[in-house]
Every structure is written in C-alpha cells, then in structure tokens.
Design brief:
Elements lengths: L1 H8 L12 H60 L9 H18 L3 E8 L2 H8 L1 H18 L5 E6 L2 E7 L3 H16 L3 E4 L2 E3 L3 E8 L7 H17 L5 E6 L8
Helix pairs in contact: 4-5, 5-6
C-alpha cells in the first residue's frame, strides 16, 4: 500500500496498467514533420535559386541578342546610306538629304551652294598604277573633303571619281573660298603608290551658289554645277568655277 502511494505521488500508475506513450509519439511526429518541412524548404529554396539564376541568364542572353540586333540594324542603315570605299554619303542618301535642305532653303529664303568636283585625268592613275592605287587616291581625297569642308556640309561620293557637296548657308564668296581651300589641299596631296613612288593628283570644281529661294530643284542645281565643272575642265583643269543663281525659279514659288 505504501508503495502504491509513492507511485501515485510520482504521477505513475499504481497498478500494472501500461504507460500511455501517445504524447511522446505526437512530439516525435511533430519533430519529424518539422524536419521534413525544413528539408522541403531547403530543396525548394535551391530550386527557386536555380530558377532565378536561369531566368537571369536568359535575360542576359536576350539583352545581348537585342544589342546585337540593334548593331546589325545600324550597320545595315549605314551600309545603305554610305559609300563602301570612302565612308561618305552615297548618291541616294545625299539626294534625300539635299532635297530636304533645299526645301528648307527655299521656304526660308536661305542661300546654299552645290559643289561638284572630280579628280583630273583619273583614268590615267588607274591605267598606270592599278585600281588599288586609284582606290587609295579616292579614299585620300574623301578624307581631305571631310576635313576641309564645314561640319554641317553634306559630302558625297557621287560616283566613280566624282564628288558632290551641299553647303547650306553658303553664298558665292564663301563658296569660292571653300572650293579653293579644298582644291589646294588636293593639289598638295601625295599618295604612296608602293615601290618607292608617290602619286599626285588635282581636281576641278564646279559650283552653283544659290541665293535665298532662287532654286528649289536639286536636279537643276546639279545641272548648273555640272556645267561649271565642265567649264573648269575646259579652262585647263585644277581650278574652280562658281556660278550664281539669284532669280527665283518657277518651281520655288
């Protein structure tokens, strides 16, 4: 009897009935569940991190592809508007830009000059030294044109050895000074032809200086400039002829 009393005092059954283990199993089950949940969290976290990394890689690749696409588009745009040898505007791009400038000049009665020039006796250069030297001459003159003409002027390789320049806000006196400066720079040019020899060339210039609103037709301006160029060649080449247009043409009204 005393033993049973002591068992009761300790909270243990006084008889031989089995002790209930349900609370222990519940705690153990809860611990197992927590461990499983933690394991699942770690696994899911790793998967999420891998997915985020993969998305970041895809985003970076897409961004790189977009940059490449934009670069190719820009290259295509440039190749369609520039001359492959000189990097100057080609004839089509020059015509589009010059038409826009002429329209503005006609509308606001602003002056401009259209300059046509080509390399004197260029065929002799090709025949004597070869086309590779001829290409070097064209590229060198294009470089001079880019340097000597003004920043806002449109410089174009018009075709073969012929160049065209549209100079906005340029009167007859300015056009004379501008063409003479470029002519002298070309005359002083020395191009290495290989095997110890150099090539020297000259250029003839024909210019039409258009007073404000006197011409709104690019073809007409080119025709007058070409006539001036022919006159320069007839005068012995390596010179510049400037013509003026001061009467408003019917197309400009």
């Amino acid at each position: 009897m005393r033993a049973r009393g002591r068992l009761r005092e300790r909270g243990l059954p006084a008889d031989n009935s089995p002790v209930s283990l349900s609370p222990f199993f519940a705690v153990a089950a809860a611990v197992v569940a927590l461990l499983a949940a933690a394991s699942i969290f770690v696994i899911m976290r790793a998967r999420v991190l891998r997915a985020v990394t993969a998305l970041a890689d895809v985003s970076a690749r897409n961004e790189a592809l977009e940059h490449e696409r934009q670069r190719l588009v820009e290259e295509l745009r440039l190749s369609s508007s520039t001359d492959y040898l000189t990097g100057l505007l080609n004839r089509r791009a020059f015509a589009a830009a010059a038409l826009h400038e002429i329209a503005n000049a006609s509308r606001y009665r602003r002056s401009f000059a259209l300059i046509m020039f080509d390399i004197d006796r260029f065929r002799r250069v090709n025949d004597r030294y070869g086309h590779h030297v001829g290409d070097a001459v064209i590229a060198a003159i294009a470089s001079i044109a880019e340097k000597e003409f003004r920043a806002g002027d449109l410089v174009c390789r018009y075709g073969g050895e012929e160049f065209a320049v549209f100079a906005p806000e340029c009167g007859a006196d300015d056009a004379r000074a501008l063409t003479e400066r470029v002519r002298r720079a070309i005359e002083a040019l020395e191009i290495a032809g290989g095997e110890g020899f150099t090539v020297r060339v000259s250029a003839s210039f024909g210019t039409v200086a258009v007073a404000g609103g006197a011409c709104a037709d690019l073809d007409e301006a080119v025709r007058v400039a070409d006539e001036a160029l022919d006159q320069a060649k007839a005068q012995g080449r390596n010179c510049a002829v400037v013509r003026t247009m001061e009467t408003v043409s019917p197309s400009a009204t």
